[in-house]
Amino acid sequence: MNVTKDNIASIFFQYSIPSVMGMLAISSANIVDGFFIGNYVGDFGLAAINISLPIFSFLFGFALMLAIGSSVLAGKFIGEENVKNASLIFSKTIVTITLFSFLTSSVLFLNIKTLLHFFGADENLAKIAIEYLSIMLLFIPFLMIGVVLDYFVRVDNRPNLAFIALLFSALINVLLDWFMIVYLQKGIFGAALATGISQLILLFILLPHFFSKKATLQFVKPIGSYAHILKAFYNGASEFVNEISIGIMTLVFNYVMIKNFGMEGIAAFTVINYLLFIGVMISFGISDSLQPIISKNFGAKEHKRIGAFLKLAFIATSLVGVVMILLLLFVPDTLADIFLEESNDTTKQIVLSFATYLWIIFLFDGINLVISAYLTAIHKPLASMVIALSRSLIFPVFFIVMLPFVFDKNGIFMAIPMAEAVSFIIAMSLFRKFSPQNLGELNESS
């Protein structure tokens, strides 16, 4: 495929379908995790995962920041037919993520208990969360390296290989979940071990590509200045901010849910995250697939093609939103029952109260994600960061503090939908400013 010259619809679907299928694989694996933990471990298992989320948000956010920021730079160099610099960025990125992931995971491993108490876990919840985190932190460096490899495989014209890696990782996670949690009855320890082992699959499938004849990007000696890596941090900063914001927002929501609903509140919020996960991840897959396409077309100054790709992405994410809205409006009970035992009636009622307002998110989130990805691909990270901060931190926290004064507990359930709606207004105004019609000046300044 030549993304700067071949048929636009064909390229869009050849990139977006594997990306979406990969995200669905990840989503299904996480949802299956939730199913097994919710039904075979219980509310405390779901709460343990949720209380650990800020740690994973930080680590995964760093990996995403480096992966997206550096792969977009590499894509622009490939579009300019400068493969040498693209390979140099790739090699330096792998060195950076390897060192950071192992060092940071080691420090966090040695301070698990302190972190969990800081996050608000009591002794009972901390005990289960430590059992989960102590295993996950051993494997998380391999996931972080795998995420970086996944993005570079896609920018190197192998989107199907990236999908295959994610699919196999998800399938192995599902099989090991059943084996560890149901068959061996290892509880939360088994869930963590299953997830950790499945993350190794990404490396085994993706790494050989860069030693094959199909690879444009090659491992080269990572010598010289690391200024491009600093630029990659800057360019991918919106993804890091987004993930970190989710972690902070989760801490705030956990506090509010415990205060208002007790332990069942955290479990319910975990289930809500699972319900959001599929729709958001599909839209994220669509928007994410745009980045290698747009970055190459940006480098080649094909601005009209960028506009055509964006139009297809807006249509696709809007269709995803319609499907999710219908599911949340007409079968919320069925969705909640997937993750909860029949005896968890209190938790289920909190989930259904959330679902009453949750569907509003899908009116806006797809377009917000597409615009944010587009801004990152055209090297406008600050604008992308504004959207990320608005939808995942500033407005969720603002509304969860303010709305309960007006709507009582219903204000808690309305906070995230309201944040997405306000962020949509901001995203559209930024899109008008940096629309494809205005890209000529941006190419010159990048």
TrEMBL record:
Entry GO terms, CC: plasma membrane
Presence of keyword Membrane: yes
Transport listed as a keyword: yes
GO molecular function: antiporter activity; xenobiotic transmembrane transporter activity
Cross-referenced CDD domains: MATE_MepA_like (cd13143)
Topology with respect to the bilayer: Multi-pass membrane protein
Alphabetized PANTHER family for the sequence: MULTIDRUG EXPORT PROTEIN MEPA (PTHR43823:SF3), SPORULATION PROTEIN YKVU (PTHR43823)
Family: Belongs to the multi antimicrobial extrusion (MATE) (TC 2.A.66.1) family. MepA subfamily.
Name the UniProt record assigns to this protein: Multidrug export protein MepA
Source organism: Sulfurospirillum deleyianum (strain ATCC 51133 / DSM 6946 / 5175)
